[in-house]
Design goal:
This protein has 340 residues and is an alpha/beta fold. The protein contains 16 helices and 13 strands. Helix 7 packs across helix 9 (177-186) and helix 7 packs parallel to helix 16 (326-339).
Length: 340
């Protein structure tokens, strides 16, 4: 294969001008097809780009080492086999997790220019249910390890939920960034990226991977971080759901660029759940903010009680996900909600 490409090289146009752009390219692990990659190498090199060609069967560790070593501007992953697409997706997720993909790369995502699909507005005009996709949790360990993202979110949408919360944290919830983009490719309703967001980079990720809203957890963020992160989200056409557990967390937050305030009914120390938390904090949340109640909502009666306190949205995860068919459970729940 290499000999064929080398034979073509003398006939490809060249320019003398060099650029400051360095690209790292390679055929992914498990694949040996490299004709296309080598042609790209020659064409780019002939046009002034610096190209580091890693060859075939390149592992993600080799990509990362070379990106750092050569301070690469961009990377290119090649492969011909169907399984190579899965390897590429896995590699991109690893790169994103380590913040190795530059923000400018994330901005090139076709999803980055999506207009705002307002979760807060659809909550107010629809069922108000935010159904969650998660495989496990810190409080319950494994909930539904074998759930398929596309199947569950499609069924949620058909059931009539207002939005879907996708857990991206791997360690505690068994999630992945790939879950978010799979969900985006499967449904049109708003998606909430639910994760421990502690860096601006994760907000750019959320936009690039198809989210419409992000969760900011007040207990893990400073007042300055809440303000800066919510401002960035607004610039990127993302809504913010600020999660609080007590009045102190609410008081420290600048709510200017925050559309929704969520009250988590779960005590993070004991994992005990009480709807009283939402009821007690409701009067402290400004009327113009959409109130969301989170955790421990397992009955229509609970929603009826919370609506009296001004809550429009209700985040339900475990109650649906613990069943064999989360979508059907959501459909039955919403049918009961409408009949009340």
């Amino acid at each position: 294969m290499k000999a064929c490409v080398d034979a073509l090289n003398p006939y490809l146009p060249k320019i003398q001008k060099e650029t400051d752009t360095t690209l790292v390219i390679g055929t992914v692990k498990g694949d040996v097809h490299d004709v296309g990659k080598n042609l790209v190498d020659i064409i780019l090199s002939n046009n002034g780009f610096k190209v580091v060609n890693l060859g075939i069967k390149v592992t993600i560790d080799d990509f990362i080492d070379s990106i750092k070593k050569y301070n690469a501007t961009a990377i290119g992953m090649s492969g011909l086999l169907v399984k190579s697409t899965n390897e590429m997706k896995s590699n991109i997720e690893v790169l994103a997790k380590q913040s190795i993909l530059p923000v400018d790369f994330l901005k090139q995502s076709p999803l980055f220019k999506r207009p705002l699909n307002s979760l807060s507005q659809i909550i107010c005009s629809g069922s108000g249910i935010i159904a969650e996709f998660k495989r496990r949790s810190p409080s319950k360990s494994v909930i539904n390890q074998n759930a398929v993202v596309a199947d569950v979110v499609k069924a949620y949408e058909q059931a009539g939920v207002s939005g879907i919360s996708v857990l991206g944290d791997t360690k505690y919830f068994g999630g992945a960034l790939d879950d978010l983009i799979q969900a985006r490719n499967s449904v049109a309703i708003p998606l909430l990226r639910k994760e421990f967001i502690i860096d601006e980079y994760q907000i750019y990720e959320a936009k690039a991977f198809g989210a419409d809203a992000i969760l900011l957890i007040a207990t893990v963020l400073t007042e300055k971080e809440i303000t800066e992160f919510s401002k960035l989200a607004k610039i990127l056409n993302l809504e913010v759901l600020l999660e609080i557990h007590n009045k102190e967390e609410l008081k420290k937050a600048d709510l200017t660029d925050i559309a929704m305030v969520g009250v988590n009914n779960r005590n993070l120390k004991t994992f005990e759940v009480s709807l009283k938390t939402s009821k007690d904090l409701s009067k402290l949340i400004p009327e113009e903010k959409v109130k969301i109640s989170e955790s421990g909502i397992s009955s229509v009666q609970a929603i009826k009680e919370l609506k009296v306190f001004g809550y429009k949205g209700f985040l339900i995860g475990e109650n649906f996900m613990k069943t064999d068919d989360p979508g059907r459970s959501a459909k039955e729940f919403l049918k009961q909600l409408k009949s009340e």
